[in-house]
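Sample 1 of the test manifest.
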Amino acid sequence: MKVWQFSEQAYYPAFDVQGSMRVTLPQRHCDPREAQALLNRYLDEYMLADELGYNIMVNEHHASATCMSTSCMTTLAILARQTKNARLLALGIPLAHRSNPVRVAEEIAMVDVLSGGRLEVGLVKGAGYEVYMSNQQSNGFMDRFWEAHDLVVAALTNTEENFSWNGEHYHYRVVSLWPRPLQQPCPPIWMTASSAGSAAQHARLDYTCGTFLSGAVARSVFAGYRQAYLEAHGRQPSDDRLAYLALVSVANDRATAFARAEEMKAYFSTAARLEPHFSNPAGFNSVRDNVRMLQAGSAAVRPRTRDGKPLPANPTIEQYIDAGLMFVGTPDDVFAQIRQFHGEVGGFGNLLMMGQAGTLGHAETVENLTLFAREVTPRLAGLTAPSPDIRAQVFA
Amino acid sequence: MSEETVRETFLKGADTLDMRGSAVEIVRKGDGPPLLFLHGMDGLEAAAGLVDRLAETFTVYAPSHPGFGASDLPPGITTADDLGYFYLDLLDHLHLDAVTLVGLSLGGWIALEMLVKEPRRISRTVLGAPLGLSTGDRRTQRVVDIFMLSAAEVEQKMQTSPLPPRVDPAAQPVEVLERAAHNRAALSLFGWSPYLHNPKLRQRLHRARLPALILWGDADAIVPCDYAQEITAALPDATLQVLPGCGHRIHVDGAEPAARAIIEFAGVSSAAAAA
């Protein structure tokens, strides 16, 4: 099991501001001196993670107090120099929110070279509400995503002459990456999924598939991936093609672990603070999905606890644990929870671990990362989870 | 009859045209001189009352714009400029000339896109609260940015008439939800950015040499009056008529005065109007 440390790098002093944490939150609530201290603190924690043997994941959001990393590649450019061993994962670059895919490819190539070939690149759809900042057209969003994807991959993998690109959406006279990426044919590519259908698409492309905070849904995501992978490539994917993201709070005693988990829980409550109409901009989701959302109401999209009930509006730590969104407790507790979840979803080879989230402070984050690396990570190496449905089909 | 029943009955009377492989939903009603009616942001069904009223005097051709309602979105149609060409093709398809062209809001913008291309196809035009010119300056919004508002806030601003009681979406028939979803997506396609305008349109308006009547509700909370005045001044032969107490949805707040203004402007005899 590869473990990746991840923090959204929140500007949590703004969590006290009333109202939305995204899109409409005025930037005057940001004290840049406070931001300076926090951003450097989060980088220190990433550097510690590198020393402790973690890999590193960063993300990006825009106009949000919940995430100050506004560019995966800017953050990773720093970590490319300041870390030594960690794989560096951008998960991800919201490709269709970007206006210039060749610039995206240039940044990928430059960070890959800087890091000595430690970069892994997530190309993601990104959140609907971010069209308010990128101003990209929601209609045809995924058409542009896939053309941009094809262009970025073509640029990264090109070992021949420079080329021009005359697509439907993007036009370039000269595509030429200086430097070109160090990893050949290109840095490993990741995508994210919350349904079996989208996971199947990633499987056919042989990309690593991550699913975030999806609880029991991860089982169908991973099964969809495995089945499509087998059909497309004639063999099982290795577990390291699959990734699951959850929050982790570990301490020597449960009381401390739960107290820290309460601090981390602010991640959930603040990430959700957005005027509802921004979450589904016109044209971003298909007509069919819109109709389904209108018919089903908001409870349908909530993760579920093991008894099948949707998580309530403000879940307890126990409910988050039960739903597979948080792993909390002593090292034994946390290992047992991960082992159980890992078995239930059919196994995965990457734990994307939010070792810092919400308002969790620096000292607590250091303890969390250190204890997990010492007491839990070594035990994860032995985790195995046969995935009966798929393997049965192989032998059928 | 409830508003839903009116809309339902109205849409049942719609035909489907095949325009080079794409379906166009169109209501054809009445008997008299031809009138092409281009609906606003809320779809054809929202203007059922006004279309029915105009059909007492005109042969009304009222299509759903590409992507709206049950009309297909043909490949390559992404802008109001494209819609201008699309509707000139529709006039060819229907063998219509000397048409009275009526467009409301978004439909007024599309009408302008037609008029700057082939003004001679149209005998006169009535534009209710048309969009199409720059909707803001660098740092200020002239036309309210409805994409930044919730559906409930948009409804509050769109009309002065009382809003119908809110219906739980889960209780609505799938067709109604699909229609609403299509309308919402199509409005984003044509209006997201640049916001509800074509930066090239202003410099082309001098080409629209035909009699034009601009209708504006003085209670329009979406588009300010100076915007109406700018369009009126930029057109070669336009007059502005203000509808008192009327909001942006002229077809809801001022259907009757708008119908009378259209009939009078078109110079249709009162006998035909009374028939």
